[in-house]
Amino acid sequence: METILMILMLASLAGVIVFFALAFEKGKGNKRRDFMKSGGCLYAFLALVVILGSNDGILLAFLQVFMLTAFLGVIIFTALAFAKGKINRLKNFAMAGGCLFVLLVLALVVGSISDEAPVAKEATAKASIEGQKTDLNVNQEEEVKEKEEQEAKEQAQKEQEEKEAREQAQKEQEEREAEEQAQKEQEAKEAEEQAKKEAEEKAKKEEEERKAKEEADRKAKEEAERKAKEDSVTVSQKQAVAMAEHYINFMAFSKSGLIDQLEFEGFSTEDATYGVENISVDWEEQAVIKAQEYLDFTAFSRQGLIDQLVFEGFSKEHAAYAASQVGL
Known about the structure:
Helix content: over 70%
Largest sheet: none
Oligomer: single chain
Number of domains: 2
Number of helices: 10
């Protein structure tokens, strides 16, 4: 709005200068009209100056423009009353008086508005101050509210962090307790396995000791029995043992055949039996040797050889074994 008024002011000022210059450039016939145009532009310029420079509002500015117009009317019509003839003088004075009346009325109105303006300004200023105070209070309340919200947010965040810290500490405690429990269980399991292993080793050792003791007791018993037997053996029985070992070292015999041979040598059946039973001999091996001796001197079938060996006192099993061993 102010920009438009400034443009109009410049245009009015330019019109004043242009029309004032034209009034002196052109002839007398147009001079009066150019002066009137220049005056109109000056009037418009002054009116715009009053409006643009007014701080009391648009109404007061227009009233001041009307006052200026009425003042100019008083001057112009008074000048015309003296410049023209007596015929129009009364009319011009009446017009000048009318303009003066309008000027006075407008002056009273403007004065009244001017008196009310400070009160309005004061009320406006007071309202502005109160508004500023209200805005300040609102701003303060907003700041307090924002501060409270920030504090509440920080408190909530702090509580959340404390809660998370407690949960993390509890979780770590539970994990630590679980690890300790697992370690204790592992240690208990290892201790149990170790105890079981030691018990097994102890039982094994005890079993070995028991078996060793039994073996020692058996050997001691056998030795005692052998010694007692040796102490109870007669000279004839000893000779029978010696004779049986002598024969078995040079010839193959069955058990019954060797007993018969000792009886043939004059030993009793008891002594001969004792002598044969107390020598170390493998009767299957004796059967194989005897079978080979027969085959070295004469031919035999398998069954014939088996029958011959049975006749010599070998069992059927030993005779069959010997026949197989010599290739029959």
